[in-house]
Design goal:
Blueprint (H helix, E strand, L loop, with lengths): L2 H14 L8 E6 L2 E7 L5 H13 L9 E3 L3 E4 L2 E2 L7 E2 L18 E4 L13 E4 L4 H4 L8 E5 L3 H9 L3 E4 L2 E5 L5 H5 L12 E8 L43
Antiparallel strand pairs: 1-2, 1-12, 2-9, 3-4, 4-8, 5-6, 7-8, 7-9, 10-11
Length: 248
């Protein structure tokens, strides 16, 4: 049996049955390459199940990486490009409870949420490009880390982070492929090929304990009162929703 067929069979079995709740490793295919995510299903079960619900429904397929901040994060999961701007928000399930057990260090994946609302995560996630513990572990009651990019997968993430970024009306830090400053100055229309697109997300290893051998860094918790409290800026992952009524 070929590797591709085996992976497809595992994915089908995991999605079709109750083992979906214990699926631990998923493979994310983008138009810039593939990477695997080892999910922390045993320690952040609500967040992992939420993520897998979106995986099984196929709602991550076709979404784009809509934000990239070098040295900080790349973010996706919530929007599609429908041949025009603004990006179109995808359907979300109910928000989930925060599970800030692990630290936002490089190569971890965490849930994005609305500023000032710890329990507001839905479908958007971000991948930490650096050790962001000092700010993300300590603001908005912490950001839930629920998995880790495996092996050489960070090469794909770093390649995404190196793409040029552009600002449009109401959208900032949008990574684009084969698009130049001249194109932006001339208001050249964007095409699907210009985006980093999530082509598919599938379960490739349904075992429940594959995270056992990983080294996990505990969330460092809130800053001491003497340090001046929380940071003044917030990660606002859902801000593009307000742009659906705007014109570019």
């Amino acid at each position: 049996m070929s590797t591709k067929v085996f992976k497809t069979l595992l994915a089908t079995l995991a999605i079709a049955g109750s083992s979906l709740t214990q699926a631990t490793i998923v493979e994310v295919t983008t138009n810039l390459g593939k990477f695997e995510v080892n999910l922390y299903d045993e320690t952040t079960p609500t967040t992992v199940q939420n993520f897998l619900n979106y995986v099984s429904s196929g709602r991550y397929n076709g979404t784009v990486i809509h934000r990239s901040v070098p040295g900080f994060i790349v973010q996706g999961g919530g929007f599609v490009f429908d041949e025009k701007l603004p990006l179109k928000a995808t359907t979300t399930n109910a928000a989930i409870v925060n599970e800030p057990k692990w630290s936002n260090v490089r190569a971890t994946i965490a849930m994005a949420k609305v500023g000032g609302n710890p329990n507001s995560a839905t479908n958007q996630w971000f991948i930490n490009l650096a050790d962001n513990a000092e700010n993300l572990d300590r603001q908005n009651s912490g950001f839930t880390v629920f998995g880790q990019i495996s092996g050489a997968g960070m090469e794909v993430i770093d390649a995404i982070a190196k793409l040029p970024r552009y600002n449009f009306n109401g959208i900032s830090d949008l990574p684009l492929r084969d698009y130049s400053n001249t194109d932006r100055d001339n208001n050249k229309p964007l095409a699907t090929a210009n985006f980093v697109t999530i082509e598919s997300v599938v379960v490739v290893d349904p075992r429940a304990n594959t995270a056992a051998g990983l080294t996990l860094a505990p969330n460092i918790g809130p800053a001491p009162e003497s340090s001046g409290g929380s940071f003044g800026w917030l990660l606002l992952p859902l801000s593009l929703l307000a742009l659906r009524r705007r014109k570019y």
